[in-house]
Amino acid sequence: MACASCSTKDGQPKGCKNNGTCGTDSCNKLTVFDWLANMSLPNGEKPFDWVEVRYKNGRKEYYKNAENLTLSIGDIVATQAKAGHDIGMVTLAGELVRVQMKRKNISDNEEEALKIYRKASQKDIDIWSSARDKEEPMKVRARQFAIDLKLQMKISDIEFQGDASKATFYYTAEERVDFRELIKVFAREFRTRIEMKQVGFRQEASRLGGIGSCGRELCCSTWLTDFRSVSTSAARYQQLSLNPQKLAGQCGKLKCCLNYELDTYLDALKNFPKTDTKIYTEKGTAVCQKTDIFKGHMWYAYEGEWNHWHKITTTQANEIISLNKKNEKIASLEEFASELVEEAKAEFENVVGQDSLTRFDSPKSNNRRKNNKRRNNKNNRSNKKKRKPQNSKNATK
User: Where does residue 237 rank: exposed (0-12), middle (13-18), buried (19+ CB within 10 A)?
Assistant: First the structure.
């Protein structure tokens, strides 16, 4: 989805000229579509006076519109902070803010509520943009200071407050880090208030963003807000190879998308018997070797004949197991396996009308045949000429 300034024209992309502050807010991170915007409130109802404000890299906060300002999505506002003020962009207003606050367990208590001061002036925006320009070179220097002090930490991002009075350093670390000396170095070099904030590896990936192995933007940086725990059992249920290089995302943890289809696989596996359940027949005991969740097939092999697998359906496997519980045995698995009709090989039809792959190739010329015929004719003529004088000499004799 792209806003009006990002849309294509004459088949060529125009590119965003607003640098992330477009009015429709559809090309930014973690956007929310206000599907209640066109609905009118019942008579006598006052509109919800809280708004959602987004800051750098998807960080969102909720503020009370105490001054009754006419705010809409995309407005740059000055908000209350612990010290000074901050600058952010309004991403949501109206009744949908109430829904978002309830979902995130944020109370609308007026005593603890932070307020919106005003719409940002041009002076506020200039100070804010100049502070944002300092963040990248500061991050390079801050990483070098941490390396010089031999601290086992990684500074992933820096965010300035809107009035440039405070800088928040986001970092990741495996263990607890004593960064008291580092804060003194930062305060002496950068001449501003310093706040250190540790984030997890998933939060770091969501802030920085990137492209996943699927070719799309990371889910955590575009729409995913809650990070549920992912275990290797999710890969086992989906019969995926336990390769850490393929299962891990850019954060180094297991991919969040492993949980997307897990419930569907668990529902499908309810009809399957447990793989560790053995089947007892008169021929011998069979053990499960493989399952196909999509087609509902299972492969069993007799103990001692591990190279010969017999394919049966899940319903047949459940019937045999139910008979075994009654101390009854079937003759062999071959009886059930023979009933399964093998799938025919796929025959590709000529749906496009292509007769052959070489239909566009130019026909080959028969120059070789012509040259061979010419050579043969020349050899025959030369042989005839050699034979004629020999015949004349024999005639004179």
Answer: middle
Q: Is the pLDDT at 16 greater than 90, yes or no?
A: no
Q: Show the tokens assigned to 47.
A: 């509109």
Helix (H/G/I), strand (E/B), else coil: 91: strand
State yes or no: pLDDT of 41 exceeds 80.
no
Q: What is the pLDDT of residues 230-256, one digit of tens each?
A: 999 999 899 888 888 889 998 889 999
d(CA 148, CA 173): 16
Residue range 162-212, pLDDT digits in tens:
998 999 999 999 888 888 899 999 999 999 999 999 998 898 988 888 888
What is the dihedral angle through the alpha carbons of 172, 165, 58, 132, rounded to the nearest 10 degrees? -100
370: three-class secondary structure by DSSP: helix
What 3-state DSSP class applies to 177? coil
For residues 5 and 248, the model is more confident at 248
Does 141 score more than 90 pLDDT? yes
- Tokens found for residue 323: 């008979």
Integer CA distances (angstroms), 357 to 119, 354, 362, 363, in order: 66, 7, 12, 13
* Burial readout 108-128 (b: 16 or more C-beta within 10 A, e: otherwise): eeeeebeebbeebeeebeebb
Cα 213–chain centre separation:
6
Class in CATH terms, 126-199 = alpha beta
Integer Cα distance of 176 and 352 in angstroms = 64
DSSP character for 209? Answer: -
Chain segment 363-397, per-residue pLDDT in tens: 666 666 667 777 777 777 766 665 655 544 444 44
DSSP string computed for 281-337: BSS-EEEEEEEETTTTEEEEEETT-TT-EEEEEHHHHHHHHHHHHTT--BS-THHHH
DSSP-assigned letter for residue 256? G
Asked whether the beta carbons of 302 and 284 are under 8 A apart, the reply is yes
Per-domain residue ranges of the chain: 16-119, 126-199, 206-268, 279-339
Cβ distance 300 to 289 under 8 Å?
yes
Q: How far is CA 46 from CA 49, 68, 89, 118, 205, in A?
A: 8, 12, 23, 21, 40
